[in-house]
Each structure stands twice: as C-alpha cells, then as structure tokens.
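Board notes, transcribed. Complex of a protein with 2-acetamido-2-deoxy-beta-D-glucopyranose.
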Amino acid sequence: MVLLRSKTTSVFLLISVACYSCSPPEKPIKCSSENTNCTITNSYGAFPDRSTCRAAEVAYPTTEQELISVVAEATKNRRKIKVATCFSHSIPKLVCPDGQEGLLISTKYLNHMLKIDVEAMTMTIESGVTLRQLINEAAKAGLALPYTPYWWGLTIGGLLSTGAHGSTLWANESSVHDYLLELQIVGPGGAEVGYVKVHLEFLEPFHRQSIYRIGDRVSTNTSGNGLYNSTSFRPIPSLELGSIRTLEELLEHLSYADGKYASARTITSKLLNTAYGLSNNDDDFTGYPVIGFYNHLQASGTCLNSHRINSACAWDCRVNGSFFHQTTFSISLFLAKSFIQDEQKLIEMEPKAMCGVELYNGILMRYFKTSDKQEDAVDFDITYYRSKNPMIPRLYEDILEEVEQLALFKYGTLPHWGKNRNLAFDGAINKYKNAREFLKVKEVYDPFGLFSSAWADQILGLKMV
Ligand SMILES: Cc1cc2nc3c(=O)[nH]c(=O)nc-3n(C[C@H](O)[C@H](O)[C@H](O)COP(=O)(O)OP(=O)(O)OC[C@H]3O[C@@H](n4cnc5c(N)ncnc54)[C@H](O)[C@@H]3O)c2cc1C
Ligand SMILES: *[C@@H]1O[C@H](CO)[C@@H](O)[C@H](O)[C@H]1NC(C)=O
Ligand SMILES: *[C@@H]1O[C@H](CO)[C@@H](O)[C@H](O)[C@H]1NC(C)=O
Ligand SMILES: *[C@@H]1O[C@H](CO)[C@@H](O)[C@H](O)[C@H]1NC(C)=O
Ligand SMILES: *[C@@H]1O[C@H](CO)[C@@H](O)[C@H](O)[C@H]1NC(C)=O
Ligand SMILES: *[C@@H]1O[C@H](CO)[C@@H](O)[C@H](O)[C@H]1NC(C)=O
C-alpha cells in the first residue's frame, strides 16, 4: 500500500518537487528563536483535537546532501522526527513529532524540478514541489499529470503521503501515486551505515506507462482558452469572510436552520452563476463545455500568492474566515447507492439537517479508480461548520455524526488520510487488506520508530492509549 507506506513511516521522499511564493498564508511553523523552540499547526490553524504541537527544532535542507546529513544527525541522537511542508494542508495531526523535543524537517526549500524527460514522459522532482509548480512545468514541456487534486498549494510529498487523488472512472488510476515510477527515500540507518539509508524504490511495472501523460481528451487544435479559477480558492476580502462567518455563527447560535438554508441558496446560486470560476475566454463564461489546456483547468488557488491587502484564502485563521471539519471517505461503487439511500432516509426525517453542509458547496463526490484502493470507489467529501468554542455543539451535529458513523462503521469506508476528525481513523488500519505488509515495510524504513508518534501508533493499532 503505497498510500500508507509513505504516510506514516514519514521517511523522507526525495522523488526525483516547495512553494512558489509562501508569503500569503500564514506559515505553519513558528519558532520563538530562529529555528528552535517551535510550534506547528495546519493551514487552518487547528488540529481536530485543537492541540498545539511542539518541536524543539526545525531544519530547512536545501539539497539532498543536506537532507541526508540532517537525517543522519537526528538518527544518531535518536531524535523524533517529522516531515513538514510549506503550508501543511492536512487536517489530522500527521505532522506532529512525538513529544516536545522532536525535529521537524521542512521541504520548503526542497522544491526543485530536477529533470524532465519529454520522450519518456517523466519528471524527476524534489518532494517539496507544489502541485502548481508541477502542473505549470509539465505544461511547458507538453506533459500533464492527470487526475490530481484541485488545489495548487499541495506538495508532491504531502500528496503521496496521504494518498490524495483526483476523480475519474475512465482511466485506471486516479491517485497521484499511481503515476509514480521511482521514489528515493532518505531514512534512518544504523551506525554501520552512518545513521542514514537512502532507499530507491521502483514501482510496479504496469505503472510504468508514464508518470505524466499528455492530456488528450480533445485534439489540441480544438479552439478554446478555458480557465478554471475556482471561486472558492480565490482571495476573498477579509471583511467579507468575517461577515460570512459572523452570520454563520449567529445562525448556529439561534439554531436557525432556515437562515442557513437561505444563505446556502445565495451561495449556491452565486457559484452557479459564476460557473464555480470557470471561464471560456478572457474571464467570460459563455457556457459549457469549457475547452482549454489541462494546466489551466485541473487545479487552481490564486489566494495562495495574492498580494492583495486585506484578502485571504477562505479558511485563513488570521482573519475570522471559515472554520470547519471535513469528513472524507471512499466507499465501494457497489455500496454507494445503498449508502446514499441510508443518508436520504436520515434527511427525510430531518430535511433541514444538511443546509449547513450546503454552505460549504454540498457533498463533493469523486470517482476513484486505483490499483490500491482495493476496489472502484466513490469518494465523499463533506465539509461542515466547526465552532471555535469546543464546548458548543453544532446544529444538527447528531445527524452529521450519524452519516459519519454509517459511512465509517456500517459501510466500512476508507478514510482520506489528509482530512477527517480522529474518529475516522478508529480501527481504519483493519480495513486494509495489506496492513500487515505495510507495517513490515514501515519497520524496514524506520527501524527505530523515529518517525512514529503516540498518535500515529494509536491509529495504526500499535499502541492503545
Ligand atoms: C484546499 C484543499 C483542497 C484539497 N483537495 C484535495 C483533493 O482534491 N483531493 C485529495 O485527495 N486531497 C485534497 N486535499 C487534501 C490534501 O491532498 C492532503 O491533505 C495532502 O496530504 C496535503 O499535502 P501537503 O503538501 O500540505 O502535506 P502536509 O499536510 O504538510 O503533510 C502530509 C503528510 O505527509 C508527510 N510528508 C509531507 N512531505 C513529505 C516528504 N517529503 N517525505 C515524507 N513525508 C512527507 C507529512 O509529514 C505529513 O504526515 C485538499 C486539501 C486542501 C487544503
Ligand atoms: C519557548 O517558547 C515559549 C513560547 O512559545 C516560551 O514561553 C519559552 O520560554 C521558550 N523556551 C525557551 C527555552 O526558549
Ligand atoms: C485499464 O486496464 C485494462 C486492463 O489492464 C486495460 O485493458 C485498459 O485498456 C485500461 N484502460 C485505460 C483507459 O487505460
Ligand atoms: C485538428 O487536428 C486533427 C489531427 O490532429 C486534424 O484531423 C483536424 O483536421 C484538425 N482540425 C482543425 C480545425 O485544424
Ligand atoms: C483568478 O481570479 C483572481 C480574483 O478574481 C485574479 O486576481 C487572478 O488573476 C485570477 N487568476 C487567473 C489565473 O486568471
Ligand atoms: C475575530 O473574532 C474575534 C471574536 O469573535 C475578535 O476578538 C477578533 O478581533 C476578530 N479578528 C479579526 C481579525 O477580525
């Protein structure tokens, strides 16, 4: 299971990809003195359990050699380690080193495109390269990486680690790791090898067709200069974000579902009218289909490096923007219908229960077709209000939790490892048929458990708390 393998061993991927401009969103790592005495959080500024994670130090290697020596030094001292990225977009506490004295290794400056082989249709990149960088560089060479997530700000190391994916049933693979050919992993080693081991992994032969494919849905001479500049990922004025949130909090406080329904209507119709940010030509949306180049359509995220003052990504915690939970899981295609019917039964009982979800664009469903998701699946992405005050329940919390439990326990769905509340990981490891092999591989890459944390061990069923 590639998905888990790279995630929890958290050994360092130096896939033969940081950030274009890290300026606008807040940095996830803050240190009281230069690179020591640090805290780390995610891009939302809060983990599901609202804890703050600490690390004694952060290292910013800029080359493979520097990375190797950082890992060797930390291994020699048996320090706990975790890999951090430029923005830290995963919701769960994957990035927290065990204890308070750990070391964070950031891939912020490991952001180089090392090689592009147009003929072989491959790219060799460092793991801190962002999706935006990758898509743009690939396009310059006439290549494309199909079925990626839709948000520019993710790094390749992060994407591979959590099994992130796009959507398709056409091709045979819809996850980023399905396009991986080789992976160079820098991990701890014994004294005899200088405390560091560089593993080079070759992936299964059928993946070798290409890592990055030329987008060939329509002939390139088909006219069209389409652009997807997602409305949700544009910089939004802080004042607007603040007032949307204040209204949402007020409606929650008043338990006024009809009010949520009305605001959801406004938002939905605005999105529909603006075609979610799609345009056919020069910012004008004239109708579907939107035809254009892959690199202009697959992903977006202009809020990432907007230099507009007083505007931010919708979830930026420095302004009082949106604050939410995400429940994201994938369910076998064969069971999806039955799950949806169960969900509909619940909604029939309480028709207003889902209005709050509509404020976050409703339930996003994507198709999943991969070698390791065990079977063809539909991925459900549910985003919903989270109170800033942990003691205050959400409106219709019971219904949403029922949906979550149906999915996770009745239908045994697999969680998205980069999203979800902790509940989603309870017993999750037992749902993977290759879990045992995964744990063996984890042992090989990280024999001293330096990348393990109490939290991760619990999730992997290794240690009960
Ligand atoms: C706005 C938004 C949209 C999203 N859309 C999608 C989507 O469409 N589809 C989807 O599947 N997911 C989506 N996600 C989830 C996202 O893909 C995952 O959370 C992803 O893991 C985040 O990548 P990151 O670079 O921020 O990594 P982080 O969250 O910083 O790291 C994730 C994990 O990977 C480890 N890691 C990172 N780099 C390395 C490395 N080089 N070596 C070893 N370990 C490493 C970290 O230690 C951590 O455990 C979205 C997230 C956001 C915020
Ligand atoms: C570490 O930072 C915290 C604040 O985040 C501060 O209270 C503490 O004194 C610092 N410790 C050292 C050793 O600098
Ligand atoms: C998917 O895989 C099958 C069997 O390996 C193959 O016959 C088919 O052509 C593949 N489809 C695509 C779109 O790659
Ligand atoms: C587009 O290219 C295809 C082949 O690549 C060709 O058959 C077709 O005539 C071209 N169409 C136009 C409008 O040029
Ligand atoms: C997307 O929209 C934003 C805000 O409207 C704008 O600043 C940005 O230039 C657009 N991005 C592209 C690639 O057109
Ligand atoms: C956010 O809201 C809190 C109270 O709800 C307020 O104290 C704070 O000043 C607000 N911050 C901004 C940036 O508006």
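Residues 227-312 form one domain. The chain has twelve helices and 18 strands.
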